[in-house]
Amino acid sequence: MKVLAYGEIMDGGISVFSSVAKVDADLLIVSFGGSIRIDNPYKYLEQYLAELDQLIPKEEIGRIEFDFKELDFCNSNGFYIIMDITELIIDAIKGPIKIKRLKDDDWQQETLPILLNVDEPEIEARTTFEEFADI
Amino acid sequence: MITQEELATTSISMRYDLSPIRNIIGDLSGLLGNFSDELIGAFYSKTVSKKANIVITELVNNAVVNSPNSDGKITLEIMINKDLLRIRVTNVANRSQYRTVRDHIKMINSTGDLRKLLADTIRERRKDRMRGGLGLIRLAAENKFSLSARYRAPYLIVDSQIGLGGLS
């Protein structure tokens, strides 16, 4: 497994949110952790988006896994950056998509499918959700 | 040994008054949201405490960002018992701001398909990377809160509440 790209949001000198994209054979795993609370997450994650855009087409990837289990909180200003990251990847890789999420988290259950555009039949057809309990 | 069900009958009420608003330079909504999440989560399920966190974050942030008077104050009141979670945020506002919030809530409350409203609003606002405008819709569509607003000059009072039957 190799790390493809890494992005984080710093607040008060500490990392409050991070996302890492890793490649394991033909699988791209993108995990999200921490909290998005700041007004403008692009200030910190623009470079991460650019790296994903540049590096993913160079890889032989057939499957996607998005892991949201460690994402504790996302304010409404964070919605667009989640959409940008996932849309970029979903558009670039036409294989199956697995979403790991928390079953008792309102935003992961209600809003995340909207951000992932799962209402689109083409995306819905290749997306599966795996539910986890929050520990 | 006290059970989880017994813990979730605990009554808690909290009130914070902060003034002047110009002194709020850090992430106040995050501080209050996270603390309340921890405290409520000591008695109620994570589902309930996370709902409180999101509502507090969105409403307090709205109040801080939109308060026209930097000398004014913000009040956050939280009340939870086995039946109900209610979060009230009060801040100085002019009548025009009140009418905007009132009309926005009226639109939300009259919408049959809140999920579609949230989806359409996110996609519409994303085109221009517009900030704000999602918080109240989110609280109703995602977190299932009932919203209301009233004006007691010069204060705008926004109430959000949810019944806890089956959630706690």
Give the helix/strand layout:
The complex is a heterodimer of chains A (135) and B (168).
Chain A: E1 2-11, E2 14-24, E3 27-36, H1 42-55, E4 63-74, H2 79-92, E5 97-102, H3 106-115, H4 121-125, E6 127-132
Parallel strand pairs in A: 3-4, 4-5, 5-6
Antiparallel strand pairs in A: 1-2, 2-3
Chain B: H1 4-7, E1 12-18, H2 28-41, H3 46-66, E2 74-80, E3 84-92, H4 95-109, H5 114-127, H6 135-141, E4 146-152, E5 155-163
Antiparallel strand pairs in B: 1-2, 2-3, 3-5, 4-5
Biggest interface between protein chains, with counts per chain?
A-B, 22 and 29 residues
Assign the CATH superfamily of chain A.
STAS domain
- Give the tally of β-strands of chain B: 5
How many alpha or pi helices of chain B? 6
Overall helicity of chain B: 40-55%
Fraction in beta strands of chain A: 35-45%
What's the number of domains of chain B?
Answer: 1
In the CATH classification, which architecture of chain B applies? Answer: 2-Layer Sandwich
User: Could you say which overall geometry of chain A the principal axes of the C-alpha atoms support?
Assistant: globular
- What is the global morphology of chain B? globular
Biggest sheet features of chain A: 6 strands, mixed
Chain-averaged pLDDT of chain A: 95
What is the first-to-last residue Cα distance of chain B? 19 Å
Q: How far from one another are the termini of chain A?
A: 26 Å
Structural class of chain B: alpha+beta
Please state the oligomeric state of the protein chains shown.
heterodimer
Helix content of chain A: 25-40%
Spatial strand sequence of the major β-sheet of chain A: 1-2-3-4-5-6
CATH topology of chain A: Transcription Regulator spoIIAA
What order do the helices and strands of chain B follow?
A: HEHHEEHHHEE
